[in-house]
Amino acid sequence: MSTRENGSVQAPLSEGQTPLPDYEVSQYFPRSRDMTPDERRELRDQYGVIRTYFKSRPAKYRDVQRWLNQARIGTTYDIYLTHSAILAMVGGVVGATVGVLLTFWLANAGILGGLTSPVTAPGGITSLVSSNRTLFAGGASALLLGSTVGGSIWAFRYYYPRNVVSNRERSINVALPHAITYMYAMSYGGMNLVEVFKALAKSDDTYGDVADEFDMIVRDMELFGNDLFTALRNARNLTPSDNLEQFLDDLVSVLDSGGEVTSFFEDQSSHYAETAKDEQEEFLETLSVLSEIFIVAFVAAPLFIIVTLMVISFLGGSTLTQMAVLIYVGLPLGMVGFLLLIDVLSAPFVQTSGVKLEEKRAEPIDTDPVEDDERFGPYQKDQRQERFIEFARDPLAVVKATPLLSLVFTVPAALAFTAAVVSQGFATPSVAGFEAAPVAATTLLVVLPLLIVAMPLSYFHERKRRREKILAERFPDTLNVLSSANYMGIPLIDALDMIARWSKGVLADELRLVRNDIHWNHDLTEALVGLGNRLKVPHLTRTIKLIAEGGRSSGDMSRILAIAAEDTRNRHRIDRARQRAMSSYIAIVVIGFLVYLMVIVLIDASYFGAIAETTAQTQTAGDVQAPGFASLSNVPLDTYRALFFHSVIIMAIGSGMLAGKLSDNDTLSGLKYSIGLTLVAVVTFVLV
Fold it and tell me: In a 10 Å sphere around its CB, with 0-12 CB exposed, 13-18 middle and 19+ buried, how is residue 173 labelled?
């Protein structure tokens, strides 16, 4: 068995012990062995039939246990699969019940009565089935739905741990270079290796799954009493990341040979930074394929289906329902599912937004001892006045920090606008109203309310993104200047003062606050922690934590700042590379929408216009419609125009959201594209 196969070994039986095999999983996976009928019966009595089936076949489900271990799902394979089987059976029963109920509903509606068998079976089987349509249809529906639902639940549960492992692997590979840089800074500051691991294990909000892996190493030593080498080897065997496995192998080799750990961390940080770039390049290739799939699935395919259904309708068929389902259900659900797929694939590359450093000065002050002091009342009054003045100076500060709060104001405004439009009679929220004036009614009742909600949200979101982008661009150079100044003997507070005087913008203001904080409180660590919490940029907060922790353990701030600058620069390079790579695919998505819009406009202006003119001429001349074709006068042109315009609006919103997700890995960043494409669609239909 290879070292990557994790589970447990079967413990030997002591003398006189009941020969009940132990298949619980600990460090290595259990081995299968032939059991006697008595052993199987005792196992069934203890665990039940279903769990016994899985427990007696450990080798068959070796991969499942390894996935569970690597996904940090705290259960054994037999318990997990037993629960999965029970859920699948319950889902199968529910699906079969729905199938039976659906069959009886169709029978009562008279739909089953007109069904005939396309084949003829010998021996009177055809007549038997025909005389018992409901019974056989119910059985077929129950079997089909039950097996489909039950099989889907089983497949989802079986492969769910594998998907978790895959996401954890990618997340570890992305964060590993930054975690190694953090360990390098801590080791350079004088921490021993175990202390470095403990510091990293406590930083799960910053380094995610990498911190969880090292937390396992720390717990292995503290709770189970293993030495460092054993803990490292156990973590190496269990981690889902090949990169981390190789790193731990190299670390064990360095420790075995008595090498310098700090130099090892320095070399590995640059090496795995290149590995992270390769990981992102593979991910960008996946995004490029998905963007092309989007064009085929949401531009070419809908156009083909819409044109086909329209032609069928002109030939006498009834396809309005199918077209409405495609436009109002298929397109929105498909786009939402597509965005969710990209979001799941992008999750390992996203730094969590809830990063907050522990600030001791932020702890609440106990005011009980001074409440009776005569100065306490005026002090509280001054505090309230300061908060009021701060709010009066910038009442939108909260919205600027959290753009989603703008919905508190814009959603009621949009509802009020819609109510005013309806009450004044400018548009009627009904099917007939939309068919009578599709562009005007949709614009007043749908587009404008959406713009009232989306435009402020997009403005504040882009404002926040621009601030983060400026900080990310300027922060590495600022750290380099601070490092050089400190290396030449300039105290850090003087270097901060120098940069603050020469710089401008939000970063200069923050550096002035740090300078004043250090000058007044003489606490560099807490000043940096406060800076990290004020910036609210996840990867910059991570860098500031590195500086604060490194500065606490080392007197060489120049080197710590240089390490942090390189770490921030690497992250910024990766973000820039993504934006450059995705710019062409954003253009493809936008062009795809414009092609869709052009085809729909051509159909509406040229084809529908010609049909309307032909219908008018036919009615005037009293011509007789050729047999086999639907009367052009019966073609619901207004309904088609409404459906087409609504499909363009849905496509504009979905294409814009996808463009934002591709460019910035942020759905809200797509609002600006959605707003622009929607306005283009409305203006085009108004002019045409």
Answer: buried
Sequence-distant (6+) residues with CB within 8 A of 234 are 27, 216, 217, 220, 226
Nearest to 611 by CA among 630, 588, 632: 632
Length in residues, the chain:
688
Q: How many CA atoms lie within 13 A of 562 on its CB side?
A: 11
> Tokens at residue 224, please?
């189970």
pLDDT in tens, 406-463: 999 999 999 999 999 999 888 888 888 888 888 899 999 999 999 999 999 999 999 9
State residue 597's pLDDT score: 92
Token pair 């089935």 is found at 129
Evaluate if residue 181 carries a pLDDT over 50.
Answer: yes
Backbone angles phi, psi at 353, to 5 degrees: -85, -5
What angle, 0 to 180 degrees and rounded to 10, lies between the N-to-C axes of helices 538-553 and 204-222? 50
* DSSP bridge partners of 28: 6, 7
Confirm if 142 and 96 have CB atoms less than 8 A apart: yes
DSSP for 556-613, please give it: -HHHHHHHHHHHHHHHHHHHHHHHHHHHHHHHHHHHHHHHHHHHHHHIIIIIHHHHHH
Q: Whole-structure pTM over 0.85, yes or no? A: no
Q: Is the pLDDT of residue 258 over 80?
A: yes
